[in-house]
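Check out a protein:
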Amino acid sequence: AFIRLGIIYYSLKKRIEAEKIFTKAYNLNQFNSSASFWLGIIARDNEDYKKAITYMEPALRNPDYKVQALLERGKCMHQLGNYYGAQPELERAVRLAKGGKIEYYIDGLYYLALNHEKNKEIEQAIEFWKAIYSLNPNYLDVASKLLQFHQLRNDDRIKDYIPASKNTFYSLCKRLIEHFGMK
């Protein structure tokens, strides 16, 4: 009853009341994955990402919340700048969501693409954006990102740098610096 009441409050955008109700349910049973999941969602909404990650842990054991909890943990890690930590969470979420709820699948792909973009792995990010675009061309800023990177890839002056691996990029920069007589 507490969980259902909390969900009603949350959907009515009464976050404070919802948090109180979910906390009551959580205090009654700390293994209650539903209460834990929703407390994690509220913590994420409040931009308390570390707390949200902690709350999502018990929800991973519940098959009803597993995909969402993996997605939310990955998103929170991404927001904290832990792109490499977010990667396995998001990959598992995408793998589990494939063939299930399309919105979780697309959301997971989007954050995987963002992670790859932050890690300067543009080719992988573009592949994920293409997959999203084929499923939902109007999803967030995917179309503009594809257009932006398409223009960059076609610009002859920088096309060698954009798709370059980290090692190749490093050697290109090193040669450029040496060419100008710098150290």
